[in-house]
Amino acid sequence: MTDPVPTTCMRCAVGCGHLQLGVDSGYGVGSVRGDVAHPVNRGLACQRGIRESADPDGEWLTRPLVREDGDLHPTTWDVALDRAVTGLGAAAVGDPDGVAVLGSGQQTNEAAYALGKLARGGLGTRFYDANTTLCMASAVRAYYDAFGSDAPPCTYEDIDGAATHVVWGANPAVAHPVMFRWIAESARTDGSRLVVVDPVATETADVADDHVAPDPGTDLALARAVLARVVERGDVERAFVAEATTGFETLADRLPDSEAAAAEAGVDAGTVDLLADALADPTLVYWGMGVNQSVQGTDTAAALIDMCLATGNLGPGTGPFSLTGQANSMGTRICSSKGSWPGQRPFDDPAERRLIAEAWDVPVDRLPDDTGPGPVGTLEAVDDGPVEAVYAVATNPVAGMPDATAVRERLDDAFLVVQDAFHTETVDHADVVLPAATWGESDGTTTNMERRVSRVRPATDLPPDVRTDLDTITTLGERLAPGLFPASDPEAVFEEFAALTAGTPADCSGISYDRLDEAGAVRWPAPDALSEGGYRYRTDPGGWEFETPSGLARFSSAVDGDLAEPTDDDYPLTLTTAREADGYNTGVRSRGGASEPAPRARVHPDTLAEAGVEPPATADGGGDADRGGDGERRAAATLGSRRGAIPVRPEPDPAVPTGLVWLPIHHPRTNEVTLPATDPKSDEPNLKQCAVRLTPGAPEEAVPGREPAAVDAGVSGGD
Predict the structure, then answer these.
(1) What's the pLDDT at 339?
(2) CA-CA distance, 192 to 184, in Å (whole number)?
(3) What is its EC number (predicted)?
(4) Who's near 615: CB < 8 A, 6+ residues apart?
(5) Model confidence at 700, in pLDDT bands (50, 70, 90)?
(6) Which residues is 392 bridged to in the sheet?
(7) Which of 110, 91, 61 is nearest to 474 (CA)?
């Protein structure tokens, strides 16, 4: 048996070290366990990360495919690449914006960097984005607005030092099991506590000391109520505010009356006091998609940062900590030229544009003038131009984007190249399909949510007709823009990227493969081979220096706005979406080649009764009466919005408040009903709130599907 290969789990952004063994014969990963030598997790590993690395349920893509006479057929790589180059090249003739490129937080740093280089430097398109914008863009914009730079200032080491943990609009017990273990253990110590803010009584709320349940879509109103109460009580940390921040007086003048704002959020004054009290101790404030995926996502994230600044909760053991979902969302942000040039170089700075153009050896006027409209706007540009072709890498927009029916129609109108390891809903609409390597098959690096870069290594050879993302991107890039990729092996591409970050806020120039092999993981900024980042913006001896023109952290001044889509008589309920323990992104690794046709809809029993919907009944009180003779589940209700209607399996659940319907974000039909409205500052979609109605009976198109396998998302120790 070969030695286990040290690598990094690519299931979520915690960045746990894994040890993987290839199968004895053939291709694939035979076993996975936590790596006790890795500095992030010290051997801990969640069962979901282990299972989805070693034995994903997805339908593998093993051959290139091209569309002929309306159907996809296996072909050779030469034919598939020729078809892709011809289609993409034709769309870019005369207008580089004829091609849209969609990347992913599931790629390695090297592949993400190469894709951005191809999109921005090879094609010159402004229509380039990644599915990271669907989950993290609002937090990113809020960090930039406050600190002048992206990424949490906190690190995992700060979790033990916090007395209070406030988890707002996130469910780390499900989404980040290893990290949640650290949070829960810290909160159990004497004098510590865990406070959860979420309309739903989540798995995280189940173990919290306090659960605050605001009305859906009112997070900004609640955060501003807490800020107002802190000011009213005289609990502002005036010395810190005066030393390290600017804009506080403007913020204070725009704050509402705390009781009025509390009422708007659907909570009482005592609840606001509870949150204000929590901030009096050393506090970490974590937030996730429940905050970011809103038309007010940036402003709400900014208000949570304001809460930390106003109470002096910045520094070791404290601070604003956005929880990242996808494994390499952070790496995509710092290296892919999506919202900034590598290293967070400002996109609109002429000097930075010249530097990038010279490094890539392309004309500076080929680089687009702006970063583009985000993924929703990118696909909307198919409707009336200029986008005529789409290149999608490791992403599934048909299932992951809001208003999915419109997304399908747009992709059918475009020439579509899909590069993925698994058969996704988007593959079904492709003109060319390029099979890609997945976890355990790829070489490179990734970056976790606390800014640590670590190695990704293959534990198995590639199947004969599968290529890595980096290989395919550079091959296409050389044919579309000859000379763009003088180097295409992972280490050389990483060195090129790292050199471009020298002297930037996200400096990775002191990181190398050799250093990662020795250290396991290195946190940026790392400007030389001996240094690495700690708590951001902290200077010795105890001062502060932010990446803003003034060197001070900036308070926001946003005011609460209206819901993106309020309920009314026709659509009286509110839809929210969230992760399930056995789901990953759009679920292609966990639900197999076929999905349950009707997602489960968690609904309060009183809401079901008012809608006249009977939950599936069984003789023994279980949930099998809605199954056909073959044991497959059938829908019992229809969930409709102004975008469409889908079959659902209603599940009575008092953990969901009345008037709310909960759907899993991973299910491929969920986004047929969600709203394509976006945050005007971040372009992130409003995936967490829209108006819906629930009616008895399934739509005509509902057909039986397959029961998904249960997955244990618990945490195990390494050995």
Answers:
(1) 95
(2) 10
(3) 1.7.7.2
(4) 608, 636, 650, 651, 652
(5) low
(6) 102, 418
(7) 110
CA R_g for the chain: 24
Q: Cβ neighbours of residue 126 under 8 Å, at least 6 residues apart?
A: 97, 368, 369, 370, 371, 372
| Adjacency order of strands within the sheet including 29-34 | 5-8, 17-22, 29-34
Q: Residue 159's CB: how many other CB atoms inside 10 A? A: 22
Q: Of 421, 459, 425, whose CA–CA distance to 443 is shortest?
A: 459
For residue 230, pLDDT over 90 is answered with yes
Residue type, 337: S
- Name residues whose C-beta falls within 8 Å of residue 568's C-beta, 6 or more positions apart in sequence: 691
Confidence of residue 707 (pLDDT cuts 50, 70, 90): very low
pTM of the model: 0.94
Strand partners, 6: 19
Nearest Cα to 11, choosing from 195, 235, 177? 177
Q: How deeply is 70 buried, as exposed, middle or buried, from its count of CB atoms within 10 A (0-12, 13-18, 19+)? A: exposed
Residue identified by tokens 């502060």 is 544
Q: How many CB atoms lie within 10 A of CB 234?
A: 7
CA 186, CA 532: separation in Å to the nearest integer? 25
CB atoms within 10 A of CB 619: 7
pLDDT of residue 560: 87
- State the pLDDT at residue 535: 96
Contact 27, 20 (CB under 8 A): no
What pLDDT does 615 receive? 80
Token readout for 25 is: 């014969």
Question: 677, 689 in Cβ contact below 8 A?
Answer: no
Instruction: Give the span between the Cα atoms of 101 and 392, in whole angstroms.
Output: 6
Q: Note the helical H segments in 401-557.
A: 404-413, 469-480, 490-500, 513-519
Q: Is the peptide bond before 647 cis (omega within 30 degrees of 0)?
A: no
Which pLDDT score, from 0 to 100, does residue 634 have?
Answer: 60
Structure tokens at 329: 């969302």
Q: Are 212 and 275 in contact (CB under 8 A)?
A: yes
Q: Is 281 helix (H, G, I), strand (E, B) or coil?
A: coil
Q: Let me know: does 323 contact 176? Beta carbons within 8 Å.
A: yes
DSSP bridge pairs for 294? none
Q: Give per-residue pLDDT as tens, 201-225.
A: 999 999 999 999 999 999 999 999 9
Backbone angles phi, psi at 622, to 5 degrees: -85, -160
Average confidence (pLDDT) over 92-98:
96
Residue 691's CB is within 10 A of a number of other CB atoms, namely 21
- What is 599-628 written as a DSSP string? -EEEE-HHHHHHHTPPPP--TTSSS-TTB-
Phi, psi (degrees; rounded to nearest 5) at 633 = -80, 150
pLDDT tens across 16-50, in order? 999 999 998 889 999 999 999 999 999 999 998 99
Beta strand segments in 175-229, E: 193-197, 210-212
Among 312-321, 653-662, 708-717, where is mean pLDDT lowest? 708-717
Distance between CA atoms of residues 563 and 161, nearest Å: 37
Listed in sequence order, the residues at least 6 apart from 430 whose beta carbon sits closer than 8 Å to its beta carbon are: 65, 67, 72, 416, 417, 418
Query: Which among 674, 664, 129 is positioned nearest to 404, based on CA atoms?
Result: 674
Which is more confident, 505 or 623? 505
- Is residue 463 classed as helix, strand or coil in its secondary structure? coil
Does residue 564 have a pLDDT over 80? yes
What six digits make up the tokens of 19?
Answer: 């040890």
Do residues 462 and 441 touch, judged by C-beta distance below 8 A? yes
Query: Looking at this protein, which amino acid is placed at residue 624?
Result: D
- Taking a C-beta distance cutoff of 8 angstroms, is the pair 134, 687 a contact? yes
Residue with tokens 């966990």: 590
Residue 233 is encoded by which pair of tokens?
């009580």
Nearest to 424, CA basis, from 446, 452, 396: 396
CB 37 within 8 A of CB 8: no
